[in-house]
Amino acid sequence: MEVSALEWGITIAVTVAVLLFDVIIIARKPHEPSMRESTIAFIVYMAAAAAFGVWTWAFHGQEHGIDYFTGFIVEKSLSVDNLFVFLVLMSALKVPRKYQQEALMVGIILALVFRGIFIAVGYALISNFSWVFYIFGAFLIYTAFSLVRSYRKHEEEHPEDSRIVTFAQNHLNVGDKWKGLKLFYRENGVRYASPMLIVIIALGATDILFALDSIPAIFGITQEPYLVFTANVFALMGLRQLYFLIGGLLQRLVYLSLGLAFILGWIGVKLVIHALHEGHVIGFEVPTLLSLGVILVALALTAVASLLKTRKDERAEVAATASTPPAPQPGDRGSE
Q1: What pLDDT does residue 335 have?
Q2: Residue 162 DSSP symbol
Q3: Residue 269, class by beta-carbon neighbours within 10 Å (0-12 exposed, 13-18 middle, 19+ buried)?
Q4: HSE of 142 in the Cβ direction (CA atoms, 13 Å)?
Q5: Please, are residues 259 and 301 in contact by the beta-carbon 8 Å criterion?
Q6: Residue 1 in contact with residue 64, Cβ under 8 Å?
Q7: Is residue 53 predicted with pLDDT exceeding 90?
Q8: pLDDT at 107 > cutoff 50
Q9: Do the domain assignments include residue 176?
Q10: From residue 231, how far is each of 222, 234, 239, 283 by CA, in Å?
Q11: CA 24, CA 21: separation in Å to the nearest integer?
Q12: Distances in Å between the alpha carbon of 191 and those of 99, 178, 180, 196, 283?
């Protein structure tokens, strides 16, 4: 795939412009966005992602168009898992709703920076060492098993308890006043770190961990750095709005980790097969179009099964509550 310097320049310039626009608007008036505001912005971002995919298909060919859409869907799915961790962080660190949008914006910018670095490093590795695909594939398969194990053990995520966050809390003079994106302030001559600084550190640490899964996963779809970068950019765009749109729905996607485990495992196997093909051990590869179909079916089954499970649990809870006799009150004959 030949991508001109002009294409790269326009892509990076537009990305930076959108981020700066968001930062200026949010910093000027911190608020909790309405459902209407979030919905409109999310639709615009998704329309832009789809339009870019159509443009890629038309100007760079069907194969690269399919690669982009597949990579975008994988990255978007993993980003939804990010949202669940962000929800846990916001709740655990008691971030006021009006400032959550600012925290998410910083988290998304950090995610783009870290993923950009990981993409550059990953591309350099796969360009020079074909055996890296074995490592990427094994890592994704291991991650898939880890997700299944965590689900079976009902392990809850506590990103706010990470060593980096704990170290920052112990070594910074953290105050109790929220000042938006102002990370330090003075009060009575004493300099304090805003609680927002701890939130940003926690989000940054989380972004690095998710990038470790995300970048090998998309390199399992395509090794074109331009497609890897743009799929990540569009997957992260609109994530902030999605946070406010489906915050409650995320709690209902009880099988999300299992669905993601299957997808990561599938891509891990695809990477290993690709490495074997590159080493002339086998004569076939897994087509990206087949991967796209498998991923879409897995996501659909995950969503449907999750919603059916939560609905069944809610009905059982209602039935149990209805069948439980009310506790006797003072003065009732049964309580004498």
Answers
A1: 46
A2: S
A3: middle
A4: 9
A5: yes
A6: yes
A7: yes
A8: yes
A9: no
A10: 10, 5, 13, 29
A11: 5
A12: 21, 14, 16, 15, 64
Q: Which domain holds residue 89?
A: 5-166+196-314
Closest CA to 159 of 213, 81, 234: 81
Q: Are 90 and 200 in contact (CB under 8 A)?
A: no
Count structural domains, the chain. Answer: 1
**Do the domain assignments include residue 329?**
no
The SS3 of residue 187 is strand
Residue 193, strand partner residues? 174, 184
| Residue 28 predicted with pLDDT over 70 | no
pLDDT digit string, tens, across residues 281-321: 887 888 888 888 988 899 899 889 988 888 887 787 777 77
CB 221 within 8 A of CB 124: no
User: What is the mean predicted confidence (pLDDT) over 233-255?
Assistant: 78
Mean pLDDT, rounded, of the chain: 82
Residue 19 burial (CB < 10 Å; 0-12/13-18/19+)? middle
- Give the pTM: 0.80
Indicate if the pLDDT at residue 252 is higher than 80. no
Cα–Cα distance list, 227 to 47, 71, 218, 275 (Å):
17, 8, 9, 20
d(CA 111, CA 78): 12
Assess if residue 172 is contained within a domain.
no
* Residue 82 in domain: yes
Q: Residue type at 260?
A: L
